[in-house]
Amino acid sequence: MELCTQLSYQGSLRPSKGVFFYEQADGTMVPLPIDHDAIVGQKCSYSEAYQPSGSDKNLQPQDLAFGNPVRRESCYVPPTIDTVMCRFSLRVESSSQTPFVCNNQNVVEALRHFSSAYRKVGGYEVLARRYCKNLLLGNWLWRNKRSLGLKIAVNTSRGSSFEIDNALLIDWHEPWPSEYEQALDGLTAELADALSGAQPFWFADVKAHVSASFMQEIFPSELFSDAKDGSNLSREYAKVRSGDGQLWPSLNAEKIGAAIQLIDDWWSDEADKRLRVHEYGGDKEYLIAHRMPASGIDAYSLLKTVDEKTALLEGVQSANKIPSDIHYLMAVLVKGGLFQKSRSA
After folding, report:
1. How far apart, in whole angstroms, are the C-alpha atoms of residue 316 and residue 86?
2. Which pTM was predicted?
3. Domain boundaries, the chain
4. What is the CB-side half-sphere exposure of residue 194 using CA atoms within 13 A?
5. Residues contacting 126, CB < 8 A, separation 6+
6. Which end of the chain is more exposed for a tag (fewer CB within 10 A), N or C?
7. Parallel, antiparallel, or unpaired for β 34-42 and 275-276?
């Protein structure tokens, strides 16, 4: 299959922003407070004492002892609170069944046949199980997962409830305790139905109960700061304003979505980490790409082989026989985005 000049998919996983709060005895939700701090920062960066060339600057000893005033936001658990909640909702749609925009009907048909063959052999169950693991393990909390205890509760639009009493006692690898396996199986089945089009859409309400240490620091998403925006804060947190004007510290929807999609360990047989689904296998920790075009396992190289992948799927008898490249390619389409080649190509 040749790529066309207009090809895009809508994302199938649509998380909301997550908000941090605690509950009063009557169940009232109260947002965690955000404080404004003014501190004296130390001069300790490389550029304070060295030129870009590597030579040292002509400084007096006292020049590096002075500090700079810094204004920033911070978020801590109130001293009388020992359990913090973080909550978001997830909408799942079957958007990977067909392109959202495509200007070549042959490409549309090829991609529809690919997703249909993947659905028939149970491929969406494999992806759904991986997404659900990240939900139930609380990986979407990022640094906030590190706590004294972590309960995850998921309520779905089908009326189901799934709970993990302490996600800190399990990890990505199975088997889990039987009651946790049952929660994973049930949640996977519902999410897989939504991805595969068995129902048009599906919602999950996800809540984490974080058992916090005394005045534990909480890490909401940080806003991008630009000197041009007039802000005098060196660190500013993302917030959501409720109808009564209160500000709630939050995790960006993109950050939650990135954690849910931390499923790509197919980039190498010796892969030692799971990457966020990315067209070139981008690794933000090491600032490298594990799916370079020369390897032939990047999303665009694999898209060109959709016809061959579909033929292969039609000969597969079970989901555990599906090659990893096919799972990865479908995960990219679930993620959504623009996949066309340039008009001049």
Report:
1. 41
2. 0.93
3. 7-29+80-264+274-338
4. 25
5. 319, 320, 322, 327
6. C
7. unpaired
